[in-house]
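Standup, Tuesday
Yesterday: got the pipeline producing structure tokens again.
Today: sanity-check two examples.
Blockers: none.

Example 1:
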Amino acid sequence: MRILVLLASILLLAAPAWSQGNATPDDTARFLAGLQPSAGSPLEPLAAEPRWKQHSAYFNGAFANVEARTLGKVRAWSSANLTVKRPVLYYMFSGPDFLYANAFFPEATTYVMAGLEPVGNIPDVLKMPRAGVNQGLGALQISLRSILRISFFLTKNMQGQLRASPLNGTLPVLYVFLSRSGKTVRDASLIHLDETGEAIAGPRPAGKTGAEGAKIVFAGPDGREQVLYYFSTNIANDGFSGGHLAKLGAKLGEGNALVKSASYLMHLPNFSQVRDFLLERSAAILEDDSGIPVTYFDDKRWDLKPYGHYLGPISLFSGRGQPKLRDLYRKSPPGKIDFGVGYRWRPNESNLLWAVKRAGVASK
């Protein structure tokens, strides 16, 4: 008995100070984002260490840069031009890009995001060894470099980085973007969709179909509650229907949609279901030329407003040019955008299309 008590005392003394107690989801999000946790948080001692201070300084500089160069301009442009408001935003092929979803559509109360990137576990820094925490912070910096510089994730690189990091999956990235967007994370949980499109708590049962994902409840400075759903799922035709995202959309109702840097996948026949879903379920769609080809927008149902400059696809996606979109830019004087977005991420090369469903045309 004396030996057991002595051993327990040694282990307690050896445990790092930050491992005692529980951190709130918001404190964890702030810590990962390089923002000071709340006073009295068990993460405070870890946030006092030099490695975290370096992480905080790096993110302070990176996010200040992207705010000045891009996000502030996106918010101003969105406020002036995206006049159709809906409570739901559908953002397919998104990865964990809440940053631009919120900048373009801050009024949404429900964000539905989907990509191939894994969800991962709910981040719990207090259960990680010091070396794992430091490694995870470094991996976050590397994972976010591309989107903070050129507005989109390099998917293949990111998938490997997210799986290899002790802070695995998209949830740590979503936490960072939520905190850096001024949000308070109130709750986060793992979920899956059942065959009716209902979001069910917990991992998907063995033998069942349905996308696995996460649900994050958060609020902005005004205290208004918002919800983010992220699903890791195949949204090609052989996976979209079985993932039950269409049935979730039927429950949520008409929304707006965002598509950018989507690899021109909805130009292909095997992505027709997600393409039709967005056309049927959206009151308005904001996209670059990598999204739904303009030929699928029925002139009797949609009004199209081009912005920026259409130069055609980059060489990686040669063959995905759209003559009809080029004609639209030639015939309809495009509006201006003073920021870069998409594969042509320089401001004088970027393009956006704002497609609005005409009055009297109901979404399904």
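Example 2:
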Amino acid sequence: MDRDWEERAAAAWARLDDYAEEDAAAFRAVIDALVAELPEGSPLGPFERACAFDSTGHPADAVRLYREALDGGLTEVSRHKARRARIQLASSLRNIGRAEEGVALLTPELHAPSDELDDAVRACLALCLSSLGRDREGLSLVLEALVPHLPRYQRSMARYARLLVEPGRA
């Protein structure tokens, strides 16, 4: 979509916290109005609507829309938004008791080209793993995400993260 639409969408999202919980439908209506401006069949529509449902506490509704956006070609429109959709879809799946689907969705993202969403991938995947009782794997991922941000102890923490999932390697 054009820059003006993107700016207006970003402005709407910046105001999300201005809506009280009971006004969630009003926020979704703002997003729906923006989506109505998109060309028919644009995968940005279901993506934005999924984000709105997700952000207002309706993960089950969001799951269907994230899948629609991804199946509708979101990756071709925006690789960044497609990666966001996979992260957010995994989170929504976890929230509705389908964490194993979230793990399957995010595991390949660990090997995707690196970007500013890498830590979010690891954090969400860690939550999915924890929901499945795989806390050591989740903690390992969180430590791996933290390592580049540490002013010291990077080498040690990276090693400890590995040892959480490979305890036989001392």
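Quick observation on example 2: The first helix runs from residue 3 to 14. The chain has a mean pLDDT of 95.
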